[in-house]
Here is the input.
Amino acid sequence: MKRHLQLSIKQLSGFYADGSISPRTVVDHSLDDAIKLKRLNAFIRLSPEKALHQAKESDHRYENKEQLGVLDGVPIAIKDNFCTKELTTTCASRMLSNFVPPFNATVCERLANAGAVLIGKTNMDQFAMGSGTVDSIFGPSKNIWSNDLVDKWHIAGGSSGGSATAVAAGICYAAIGSDTGGSTRNPAAYCGVVGLKPTYGLISRHGLIPLVNSMDVPGIFARNVGDCLDVLNAIAGPDDRDSTTIRKPFRKIDMSFNEELDLRNVRIGIPKEYHCEGLSNEVLETWMKVADLLEDSGAHVHQVSLPNTSASIFVYSILNQCEVASNMARYDGIEYGHRAEIESSTEELYANTRAEGFNTVVKTRILTGNYFLLRKNYHKYFEKALRVRRLISEDFKRVFETPKNDENIVDVLLTPTTLTDAPLYNDFVSQSNRDQCAVQDFCTQPANMAGIPAISIPIRLSKRGLPIGLQLMSKSLNEEMLLRVAGWIEQQVEFDCLANEQIYAARS
Amino acid sequence: MYKKLLLSKSTSRGFSTQIQTAKTNLKNWKSVVGLEVHAQLLTDSKLFSGSSNEFGAPLNSAVSHFDASIPGTLPVLNRKCVEIGVKTAIALGCRVNEVSMFDRKHYFYADLPVGYQITQQRAALANDGELTFPVIVPGKKTYYKKARLLQLQLEQDSGKSLHDEELKRSLVDLNRAGAPLIELVFAPDLETGEEAASLVKELILILKSLRSCSCKMEEGALRVDANISIHRSGEPFGVRTEVKNIGSVRSISQAITFEIQRQFEVKLNGGVITNETRSWDATTRSTVPMRDKEVLQDYRFMPEPNLPPLRLNTSATDTSCSDIISVASISRGIPELPEDTRSNLIKKYQLSQDVAVILVNEAKLLQYFISIMEHVPGIPAKLVTNFLINDLLTFCNKRNVDIEDCQLSYIHLEDILSALHAGTINLQAGRELIEIIHENPSQKVQTLIKDHNLEQITDEKMIEQFCRQAIEQHEQAVKQYQSGKKKALFAIVGEVSKLSKQKANMKMVVAFLEKILKSE
Here is the structure.
């Protein structure tokens, strides 16, 4: 058993600083563990040489007391849709199976500048289109909380299932995912870790291969809220290379006074529309328990209404497919990526390249999106969807900032992240991708539609021994409040995200 | 005379000698022409990336990751392009919009790596401008025409495809991909090819004086597409065709004239005009249907999600805000525009409108004119414009030299005109000097006059001698003149000129001849 496994990032860097353990050792262990836990299929590609080189440099910095900050020497993983210079970035698709980016995504660059050590690139649904990490050309990721990793195993959630798994399995202290409709929070909930989707525009998307530009946000996985904040502080803030980043300089969030959070000043909203069809009793029970816990500790807990919630998933689906149709247009086999072996005409080359390079899910979304964007359909679908998106945004604005007459204003909304615990792989894949996403993204995608921050934190285990998480949402740029409340709940529920047998079985 | 000279210029900068008006004229039928102009902006870098926007760089050497559509790259708007766009919009009398937006226009083509062009379809940078310009048609009086400018938008250029027919390969050069363009959409307010060519000519003058665009059509820096239809007067507009690939100002007039004529002929033969895109073929001088454009495209426009709305400060008074571009402060930096220059010339030097048009059309000619007027005191403007237009420009056209490449310095021209004005040389000698100096620009005019023996003969005795000799040789002409045929004098004058090796003062010759022929 490795002692350092249970440490927080701050504790780990403290040990690095006092010399009780070295980055090199911890990174060695990480790489070892990644190989030992290969059956989870968390990684598409490990980068051992680069990692060991980074670790060595980190060693030197600590020896000379020149460490770059708390992330220096900390092993992390990054989802395979973030460009990493000279390291193949596939989006788990055949289309990009040979794509070696010539530059680093801003997120990767900032993490490297903070001294974090990249262990490898993690598994995902092809082009992040999914909520199970089951549609990858490298095969599905498996949920580490499954009792049986051979036949009856549970999905890790998605689309950032690889990153969630890498953190849940103790391979890395933190990981980067992306979140377009819940792709960070969903696998965080299923894998029992913290998953943060920050405010749209707080973290640069430069170098993130887009799914839906207007909703994509780099997400953060960690084993606790404090670690999550340490990563956020390292990567957030304006970037000239992404015009949609918020231009106001980012002030690092300091949570050292977390204990002092006085819940009497905190207003919690329970949106009734999230009590929806398909919500499992266990999740509902967990949700209510935490609401009671907050109320009992002095918080003002109110039921609120977000009336357009039920329309959100349909609108999300339309906007998603339209942007997908557009974003995928660049994959033609000319400049990079897969190219079909047919050269009779440019049109044939395009058609075959795209037919071979994309899976059915991607192709379906491209076709549907293009249909919605046709001149004759634009008003009926895309434009209408944009209008409903605005209504959803206004719902949130109302409860956070401008309540009507007798309504309560709230600071944070508490909701389920997913409707159930992690489904069995076999059950999950019996449904179409569209049906999977319609259920999985129900509670998570509204935050993307509105651009607001949201976090999923693990609360407890279900009867089946699988994690159940809850989601907190707040108004734009209110990450501090969100993380404070999340941190408070975390302290109360004392969920041990490494308390499952597989982690230790694999390592022994 | 001036018109003909102007129109005979053979470079793309001038008009064409072959201007033909549509031959067949159906009674009561009207032609309608609208233009769409794409102008590449004169900036160091591209519209959304930092790569170079220089023409003629080695193949695929000015290509950023963004230009090559590498996934994960994002567009970052080049402020300079917006400033040039705004400046141009103001000069063309547009309403500059406080908020404009970018859209994606989708189509698959090998030189469009990303699969869509970023343009401004829904909310453009500027709207509702107009352009008033002189129209010059040989044999007709110059008149002014006005065309409404419906929209001015910023957009990306595409790359270039090169097809190797033998190897059956297509090659792509992405240097131009993402280069900044403004598209100007004019209302169908024109009727003829000449009007269209005149509009473009004026637009070129404006864009050049603003330094918005090099306007080199041969480099593709300025591209013109024309929408053309015909209809019976009083009835709605007919089905229009679009003509593309017009490579020079001369071709604009030719292509449109041809297309109007073609449509007339289709109608005459009872045919139907179809909405199609046609290409101008400069070798066969005809428009031909473009095969790959036959299928009606649906561009599936969508807002560009990676660019926030473009906001401008349109307040007339508050221009202080540092970050947002102020329309008012750009507007203060706009130089004198061609139409102002023309009316100033007419006012200050009492030039005719036609002369003013010619001077303004040729920047170098105008500079010569101004410098001569400033440095040769008392010289009549007409003497200068006559010499510049009739003699200098004719020389350039004959030699096929662009006036911009003419070797004569301002000093040369000042000295020649000074000598002409003082009567030291005559016009013929002036013409000779142009030729001599163009070959050997290092010599001074005064030296050349001496070395080449170009001084005018003003000695009365010598002139009398030449005249008497000529009269003897032209008895017939003398008789004709004395019987009232005044033109017959030219034959005798010509002979004097020949005898004096073109050096006699012609004014004195004419006066002397008139005197003695009357008295005899």
